[in-house]
Amino acid sequence: CIMPLHHPAFTLGKSDFSLSLCTGMNAAVRAVVRVGIFTGAKVYFVHEGYQGLVDGGDNIQEATWERVSMMLQLGGTVIGSARCQDFRTREGRLKAARNLVKRGITNLCVIGGDGSLTGANTFQAEWSSLLVELVKTGGVTAEEAKNSSHLNIVGMVGSIDNDFCGTDMTIGTDSALHRIMEIVDAITTTAQSHQRTFVLEVMGRHCGYLALITALACGADWVFIPESPPEDDWEEHLCRRLIETRGRGSRLNIIIVAEGAITKQGQPITSEDIKNLVVKRLGYDTRVTILGHVQRGGTPSAFDRILGSRMGVEAVMALLEGTPDTPACVVSLSGNQAVRLPLMECVQVTKDVTTAMNERRFDDAVKLRGRSFQNNWNVYKLLAHVRPPSTKSGYNLAVMNVGAPASGMNAAVRAAVRIGLIHGHKMLAVHDGFDGLAHGQQIEPRPPVSSQQIPLVPSPSMPDSVLSTSRDSTGPGGCIDAFSGISASNRTLPKKYLEEISATISSFNIHGLIIIGGFEAFTGSLELVEGRGKYEELCIPVCVIPATVSNNVPGSDFSIGADTALNTITTTCDRIKQSAAGTKRRVFIIETMGGYCGYLATMAGLASGADAAYIFEDPFTIRDLQVNVEHLCEKMKTTVKRGLVLRNEKCNENYTTDFIFNLYSEEGKGIFESRKNVLGHMQQGGTPTPFDRNFGTKMGAKSVAWLTGKIKEYSRHGRIFANTADSACLLGMRRRSLVFQPLAELEEQTDFEHRLPKQQWWLKLRPILKILAKYKADLDTSEKAHLEHITHKGVPAEANI
After folding, report:
1. At what angle do helices 173-194 and 690-713 cross, to 10 degrees?
2. Cα-based distances in Å from 125 to 12, 15, 121, 383
3. Is the pLDDT higher at 714 or at 336?
4. Angstrom distance (rounded) from CA 529 to CA 546
5. Residue 790 pLDDT > 90, yes or no?
6. Is residue 161 flagged as an active site residue?
7. Which Pfam families does this entry report, sorted A to Z (predicted)?
8. Predicted TM-score (pTM) of this structure
């Protein structure tokens, strides 16, 4: 726990010269206030942004613990934002400085875009001269100026456009993608019914991130972004693309346009221009939908709540560790790690992107956006614009799902099949998991298909798995789609079927295998590798893609489907909290899935503002339960008369959900009532989130590229013989990158009894959960975020896909 040496006070403001809002800011506000109070600092709200800082008075108010309750699920910002021309002038900044000095505030946390953060940097740079002038004019005393001799600045980026260089994701972007995809999915159904073409315009005047990720997530036919304008003959290419899609049986076309889309000559490309082109040349029934400011509102996603909370905590740590020589920094996200970057370096690189676009250096603009943007753009171009070659590779790749369904599997399968066809491979679908692979009847080839042709190909928006639960069910609620209902519900492991599986691989001449699934996929793949010594046919490259709501597969920080499940839990908790707030003095105990893995319970606890989250990895005793009950009893004396407790389904064999419910009910008699909810399998269903669609798409594409390379590496005289450790790998996200790790190495990192990785990154977030719930806890700073530099940092793209 880092305690401030001089008990400093700091302010928290949402400020923006251009008045742009996004959801998720309230999570950051809440975290800064509560962690600031936890460390012993005074925290002040600055209402109405820089205008409130200039005007002072009641616009600057001390924050309390209770005032930030029930904020997590609210969009926008509860402390307000406003355009401020006054702060652009030195006279305005003098007034702002005086208001801070009079209150003894020496630390400023700013949440906003590059305009807000640039203003904060200017404020810090002028601070000393502002104090001198204030003392000279009598605005403050010499003693007051001495006590406020320096100003520390930390910024957090809030922008739905994700246009700030130096961070993988800005606060508000994921929530905006949720709003967009809800509308795109709704439009897709009507477009299919009427055989229409829809042109959807999303925000992004200078950045095409929203448009690009939307196109990846929905399988759009075309996307226009300002960083990479289309070729001069784009009209012909677009029309040809739409005709090809319809020719393969699709009943609709989806075109995504960023509001700042331009030609290579810098002329705007509007949604109406595209509509008129399609109607005039093709005669298709075409509609335009401009999403507008709906993208800025709504309930924040679980990702944005956790991101805002983590950034808020890191911002407080940065402020309290600051010295007079510390430059203004911005807290950002790199992979799953919080990092601190020099504020003006980030601002400068962000401006460099605009400069590159203005100078028609579009390749440089894409590179300056960063590695993540570059990779997303490369994947989209492959999936949407590269056609399968006329000459085939002669290789056969099989795709299969193993274990329980997870939303987002469709995206991985779709990407794998499409990239495989682009490489010239024959793609085979394996029904019914390892059982289907053993018996062979459940394997069938896949023809080239359209992304919207639901009976033939998985759509990224379809729930659960394309390798689904029933061969007879139909429609989104049933889980049959792409591969005619390939079953993923079969949890059979391959060990007792190795001979039959070897015969099937030989019979279908399978050269590589992609296995998408959870812990069963991992353990089953290990069994296949173990069988190589006895069955030569098993010596083919194998790639495992983790897909499970439990997020318990070793070798990856995230699994496909976990984000969708997390949002489902968070949404349910929001509704339960509303019920508790309405009835008062009520505590809800919620049981989540995850097996022995407490990822869902912990992260849902952070996202929903839970008072406690019981998990297997963090053992607890009856004394801990007693402390929690006493804590809730004290809470009922405040204005926040409700409680939320999450319990992982296998956190303790004795302290069951019923036991905890009965304990809380008995010990809370006369103080609060208790209720319990077991969420069950609703956590495995639902439409996949944008994160899971995008993550699955990139994983599927990268797996095929890796398999193709391995097949060529191990090919000798027309035969494949891959028996080295690195020929059977799991593709996972590690910190900042997608990496392939040999299954044999991951075996040593696995607790097979409890189906868990031995090391899990998210456990370091549990102290934050406890602190935000007002428990005393040690904040683990062993992986303290250090100031990094980005101006000259290389941005190499990942291996070619």
Report:
1. 90
2. 19, 18, 6, 48
3. 714
4. 17
5. no
6. yes
7. PFK
8. 0.90
204 belongs to an annotated ligand binding site: yes
The fold of the 174-295 domain, in CATH, is Rossmann fold (3.40.50)
CA end-to-end distance (rounded Å), the chain: 44
147 is in an annotated binding site: no
Model confidence at 116, in pLDDT bands (50, 70, 90)?
Answer: confident
Which of these ranges, 108-117, 406-415, 562-571, has the smallest mean pLDDT?
A: 108-117
DSSP code at position 796: P
User: What residues have CB less than 8 Å from 166, skipping those under 6 apart?
Assistant: 330, 332, 341, 345, 346, 349, 350, 370, 790
Give yes or no for a contact between 250 and 450, defined as CB atoms under 8 angstroms apart: yes
Place of tokens 């393969």: 248
- Smallest CA-to-CA distance from 12 within 539, 40, 41 is with 41
Cα–Cα distance measured from residue 438 to residue 398, given in angstroms and rounded to the nearest whole number: 13
Tokens encoding 452: 């919207």
Q: What is the pLDDT of residue 792?
A: 44
Please identify, in words, the CATH class of the domain defined by 386-559+688-757: alpha beta
Distance CA(487)–CA(471), nearest Å, equals 7
Question: Would you give the distance in Å from CA 491 to the centre of its chain?
Answer: 28
- Residues 573, 579, 585, 589, Cα dihedral to 10°: -30
Residues 6+ apart with CB under 8 A from 745: 725
DSSP string, 739-792: EEEEHHHHHTTEETTTTEES--GGGGGHHHHHHHTT-------TTPPPB---TT
Active-site position among 16, 55, 161, 574: 161
Distance CA 327, CA 323 (A): 9
Tell me if 404 sits within 8 A of 547, measured CB to CB.
Answer: no
121 is in an annotated binding site: no
* Structure-block tokens of residue 65: 């613990």
| Sequence-ordered list of residues with C-beta below 8 angstroms from that of 543, at least 6 positions apart, any chain | 512, 513, 514, 515, 703, 706, 707, 729, 730, 731, 740
Q: Which residues pair with 42 in a beta bridge?
A: 9
CB 156 within 8 A of CB 28: yes
Q: What are phi and psi of 142, to 5 degrees?
A: -60, -35
Q: 642 pairs with which residues across the strands?
A: 586
Number of H helices, E strands in the chain: 24, 26
Asked if 696 and 409 touch (Cβ cutoff 8 Å), the reply is yes
> Which residue type sits at 754?
H
Kindly report the number of other CB atoms within 10 A of residue 236's CB atom: 11
Q: Which residues of 724-749 are buried (b: 16+ CB within 10 A; e: fewer)?
A: eeebbbbbbbeebebbbbbbeebeee
355's CB contacts (< 8 A; 6+ apart) are none
Spatial separation of the C-alpha atoms in residues 747 and 526, rounded to whole Å? 8
- To the question of whether residue 491 is assigned a binding role by annotation, the answer is yes
Give me the residue spans of the domains in the chain. 2-170+300-355, 174-295, 386-559+688-757, 562-684
The reply to whether 174-295 and 562-684 are identical in fold is yes
Q: Is 549 a known ligand-binding residue?
A: yes
What tens digit of pLDDT does each residue of 263-301 get? 999 999 999 999 999 999 999 999 999 998 888 888 999
3-state secondary structure of 83: coil
Please provide the average confidence, as pLDDT, over all residues in the chain.
Answer: 87
Q: Nearest Cα to 153, choosing from 341, 420, 403? A: 341
The answer to which of 354-363, 454-463, 723-732 has the lowest mean pLDDT is 454-463
- Write a three-state SS string for 183-218: HHHHHHHHHHHHCCEEEEEECCCCCCHHHHHHHHHH
What is the Cα–Cα distance from 87 to 96, expressed in whole angstroms? Answer: 8
What is the CATH code for 562-684?
3.40.50.460
